[in-house]
Every structure is written in structure tokens, then in C-alpha cells.
Amino acid sequence: MGSLPKVAIQGEEGSFSEEAGVKYWEKSVVFIPKRSSDEVIKAVEENEADYGLLPIENSLIGSVSTTYDLLLESHFPIIGEIITQISHYLLAIKKIPLKNIKRIYSHPVALSQCSSFLQGLKHCEIIPNYDTAGSALKISREKDPGIAAIASKHAAKIYNLEILAEKLEDYPNNQTRFIIISKTAKTEYHKNAKTSIVFTTLHQPGALYRVLKVFNDYGINLTKLESRPHKTEPWRSYFYLDFEGHKADQMVKEVFKELKEQTNFLKIMGSYPIWTGKGKVEHLHLKKTEDEDKSHLPLYSRERQDKSTTISLKSPNMADVTIGGGAFTIIAGPCSVEGRKQLFKTANIIRESGVRILRGGAFKPRTSPYSFQGLGEEGLKLLKEARDAYGLYIISEVVSPADVELVSPYVDIFQIGARNMQNFTLLKEIGNIQKPVLLKRGMSATISEFLLSAEYILSHGNERVILCERGIRTFETTTRNTLDLSAVPILKEETHLPVFVDPSHGTGNRKLVLPMSKAAMVSGADGVMVEVHFQPDSAMSDGNQSLDPEMYSVFKKELDMLIEKLIS
Ligand code: PEP
Ligand code: MN
């Protein structure tokens, strides 16, 4: 047999560490027992072992502080974790009554987990020892029937000991989490990963709060927060934090960028698969090189998927529409659905022009609570009627995760508005649905934040995302927003997703809608979404930026002409 990888563990054969290791690697490694955690680290450092396995926390007694302190100093990443059920047994060389036991040996952590049982044995001397299995080994060697050890059932078998009492722990659900460190093992990117970091905060009020806020802002789940004293600066602390995500995830990279500004010291201890009950034997093999493996790249990125995403709308009795992949698509309609007459008159103009997708807000995210908030479900029903009457696909905004189910049957494309671009709960909810979604750029969002919001939807399984540039806030007040058309070629390079432009919200001025639509087309956009109203001056929202029927007709004609020119 070729040489098996070696794992240094704290404790003798039969220890809980060994049990955890067996669970992780099955039988494909050799265990090297060490008396202390320091020695485990040293064995890895000096290449005596390929892996080190250390207990880090227990569900009854909390963190194993020696492991935390060692991790701060160690130069090796954490590459895995294992959680095992711990059950304690009282062992001796012969079956004797409990009253005849003089001394009991075990690891201090095990002793503290069995405190109620030990309270009942006041006549015994309780002696902390370096290891549970080491205590079993000791009594098996001393051959004194009056001494006992608290250790695992497995240790009883290995050292040929009798079980005097079982399941001694104070609480039945006693679990320990172990970590695996390695100097040489290459781990592959894992979607379901956890990352461990240690940091010190800036010496300022609210410093820890600001660190935690970064995670909250990105919607990242924390699984552990622990503090340990700073050994050289009294009353300062090292904070150890575990969170869900991998250090190669684009979002986690952004988090680190922000954390660097909020911390004095920051060390990434490792990203590793979250324990699911199954071992990670594949760690033993060298992994593919980064060039071959694109799984750590963001789902939106062109680097990961070169082919442009196209989104097809299909419905019985309606012609198919394909968004992206070279076509230039116009979406038009009123800002809000105001009533049947308004919607139908406008829908008719749009259908006549040959445009196939009708927009109309039923749930309106208005800046003022006193502005028209939309007709809600009644508006959606009118959109559905217009769909059937004119054969137009429908896009309408959903503003809350609770409304997704309600809105879904009425629309062909969901819209997520600028104000909700970072409503992560909504993004996740839409991510779970298989229906196209047009995501608008937040009014003060960077391009990178915009892409990460799209990543939320993609990573939850919905691949049909359209991005929409709709203007950002700048110091300029002549236009409602500053339409950032430079975002279009940047996005087209960064992502395979279709990119739209909304010149209506981007400028707030109907006169600018046509020139900016032309500019959008030339800059490489896959389409535009514009607001049209049969009578803009009477519109309940965004009348100033809505095209009237005459302007819309010129708009459509001129864009058609420009398309012709660009093609020829
Ligand atoms: C809209 O499209 O009507 C709208 C509210 O847009 P935005 O979210 O871009 O402001
Ligand atoms: Mn609007």
C-alpha cells in the first residue's frame, strides 16, 4: 500500500479527535497521536503530518480557547470542519460498584460535560488529564480496579475496559466541532462554504458594530463570533468570526475590501466546506488548476460564460420575442397603470408601433408616501387584460418579497426597481422563481454592486436576468438623474447578461428620451425601456418624462432608421 496521508490529532488512539478523523477520512489516513494542540501544530509545521485536527468548540461548554489562540499564530489555513456527537462512558478494568472507585481521570472538557454525574460521586478524587483516551490507556496500564476514566465507547474497546456507566454528559445533545489545518493540501472552491477570519477593531466607539454591519449590508450569515484577549495589549481583543461564503466569491472579496477599512488587523484563516455529515476525502488529491476551474468566478461574469445570455418570451397565440444576442428590444408603456382607459389607449399605440412588450407599474415605490402608490392587484388584472387584448408581453415591478407570488401570474418579466436593487430578500425570492427579471441599477450603486445584486438572483437559480441602467445621482440637477451610458460597454464586457437602458428615469425629460435611446443603441445596449402615456400631462406619475403619442411615433421611426444604418 502506498503511504497514506498522516493526520496529527490531540489525544491517543480512541480519542474523540480520532473518532472525528475517522468520520472525515474514513480509514484512508494514519493518525499520529499528540499530547497537546501545540504538538499537533508543530507536527504539521515540521511536515511530520499532512493534516492537523483540533477541537474548536463544543455545544455545551463553548469555545476551546487554546485552539483559538494557536490559530492566531499558525501559518496554515483551515481546510475543513467536522462535527461529531460526543458521548461519555465511565470505564474501569473490572466491573465494580461505583462506591468503590477512588479516582477518575479524564480531559478537563469531558469532566466539565459530566458535572451532574460527578456531583453524585463525592467520594472520588477527580483528576484532569491530557486526554480522554489517554486516561483510558493509563488505567488499562495501571491495572488498579479502584481507578476509572471517562472516555468514549470506542476507547473501552481499544483498551479492553469495562463500561461502568454510560451517557454521562449533562445534556444529551453534546457535539464538538473540529477543524482541519494543512500546509500542503489544496482545497477546491466550494459553493457551500464557510470562511473563518480573525481581526482587531479600530480603537473607536462603534468599531465592532461597523465590522458586523458590513456583513449585514451584504446579507451574509454569521455562524460564530468569539473574542479572545490580546496578549500584549490588556483589555483589547481579537475577534474570531465565521461566516457563510468562500473567499473567492466576488461578494466576499467586496466584504474584505470594506473590512480592511474597519479593522487594524485582519487575517483570513481559511474557506472550507460547511460540514454536512459527509467526509471530504477529495481534499487528499491535488485539485485542478485555477485555469481549468472557473467555478469560483461569479455567475454573471463573461470570463465564466462567454456566450451572451438570451431570454425568450413565448406564449400561446403570441409571437416569440428574444431579448439579447444581437436584437435591440423596445419596452414601452406608462409609468403606472392608472385605469382601463389609460392603459388600453397607451397599449394600443404601442401595439400599433410593432413593439411587443408593455410596461406598467401596479406597485409603485414612490419617494413620498403621499404620492400615488399604484393600483396594486387591480392594476395587475388590467395588465393581464391588455396582454390578452393586444398580444403584448407584460413587465411590472414587484416591490416586496411577500408580493412575488401575487405578481407572478400576471407578468412575463418581473421588474426590480432602483430603490430595491439591494433588497437582498427580494433578490433571493426572485432568484427562486423561473421567470425573467429586469433589475434596475440603484441610484447610488456602483457597477460592481449592481453586478453583485444580479449575482444574488443568479446564485439562487434564476438565470434570466436583464440589467437596466436608469441613471445615477450626481451633483447635476438639470436632469432628474445622470444617465451613465458608459456603464453599457463596461457591463457588456463584464457580463454575458443583456443590458438595457431606461432614458425616461435616466433623464426625467421626454425631450431627452430619443437622443439618449439612440446613444444607448450605439453604445451597445440590448434594448431600451421608455415611458409612454396617451396623455402625459394628466399622468399620475412621471408625466414629464413620458413620451406622448406623437413623440413616441417619431421615437420609434428614428430608432428603426438607426438600426437599419447600424446594420448596413
Ligand atoms: C419605474 O420604472 O417606474 C421606476 C420606478 O423606475 P426606477 O426604479 O428606475 O426608479
Ligand atoms: Mn416611472
Number of domains: 3
The CATH homologous superfamily of the largest domain is termed Aldolase class I
Total count of helical runs of at least 4 residues = 18
Low-confidence stretches: 281-292
| CATH fold category name of the largest domain | TIM Barrel
Q: Describe the sheet with the most strands.
A: 8 strands, parallel, barrel
Mean pLDDT: 92
Radius of gyration (Å): 32 Å
Shape: elongated
Question: What does this molecule look like?
Answer:
It is a single chain. The protein is of the alpha/beta class and 568 residues long. The protein has three domains: 6-83 and 175-288, Periplasmic binding protein-like II (D-Maltodextrin-Binding Protein, domain 2); 89-166, D-Maltodextrin-Binding Protein, domain 2 (3-Layer(aba) Sandwich); 311-530, Aldolase class I (TIM Barrel, Alpha-Beta Barrel). The chain is 32% helix and 24% strand. It is built from 18 helices and 25 strands. An eight-stranded parallel beta barrel has the order 18-19-20-21-22-23-24-25, surrounded by five helices. Strands 1, 2, 3, 4, 5 and 11 form a six-stranded mixed beta sheet that branches. The protein has a five-stranded mixed beta sheet with strand order 8-7-9-6-10. Helix 8 runs antiparallel to helix 9. It is elongated, with a radius of gyration of 32 Å. The N and C termini lie far apart (70 Å). The model is unreliable at 281-292 (pLDDT under 50). The structure holds phosphoenolpyruvate and manganese (II) ion (MN). Phosphoenolpyruvate is lined by residues 335, 361, 365, 417-419, 440, 470, 502, 505. Manganese (II) ion binds at residues 335, 505, 531, 541-542.
